[in-house]
Amino acid sequence: MSETKLNLQFRSDPGHGWLVVDMAALHLTNLLPSDFSAFSYVTVQKGKLKFALEEDCDAPKFIRSAEDRGLTLNIKEHYTDGNSSIRSWQSISTWQPYGPSVHGSIGPRSHA
């Protein structure tokens, strides 16, 4: 059986930190965006959904789930002296996954 390795980023600023994952990583851990708190964020980069999981509760939940499934995590750390751009991302709690086609979105689309 081959090992599944996830290459991830941990981004932080003087006030907080976030583990950045994509939808494929969430699928591998059997987690959904709704499994995380309002302190995590979401954005679209290069047509793909990116989630910034806050460091205190949400990132550890993701890491535990990944480890429980035998996934190997390679996490690179990135620090910025000012506010991280992640702070301008949308809160995961207000994100609506059923919008225009975005690679990596989940769920049925309504046809209004």
Give an overview in words.
The protein has 112 residues and is α+β, with helices and mostly antiparallel strands. The chain has a domain at 18-94. The protein has 2 helices and 6 strands. It has helices at 23-29, 58-68, and strands at residues 5-12, 17-22, 41-45, 48-54, 72-79, 90-91. Strands 5-1-2-4-3-6 form a 6-stranded mixed beta sheet. A hairpin with a 2-residue loop joins β3 and β4. The radius of gyration is 14 Å and the shape is globular. The model is unreliable at 100-112 (pLDDT under 50).
Task: Provide key terms for this protein.
6-stranded mixed sheet; single chain; 112 residues; disordered C terminus; alpha+beta
Short synopsis of the structure:
This protein has 2 helices and 6 strands; from the N terminus they run E-E-H-E-E-H-E-E.
Q: State the share of residues found in helices, binned by percent.
A: 10-25%
Question: How are helices and strands ordered from N to C?
Answer: EEHEEHEE
- Total helical elements: 2
Strand order of the largest sheet: 5-1-2-4-3-6
Ends apart, CA distance between termini = 45 Å
Sketch the major β-sheet: 6 strands, mixed
Rounded Rg? 14 Å
* Silhouette: globular
Q: On the 0-100 scale, what is the average pLDDT?
A: 87
Proportion of residues in extended strands: 25-35%
Question: Which blocks of ≥5 consecutive residues have pLDDT under 50?
Answer: 100-112
Judged by helices, strands and strand pairing, the structural class is: alpha+beta
Number of β-strand runs:
6
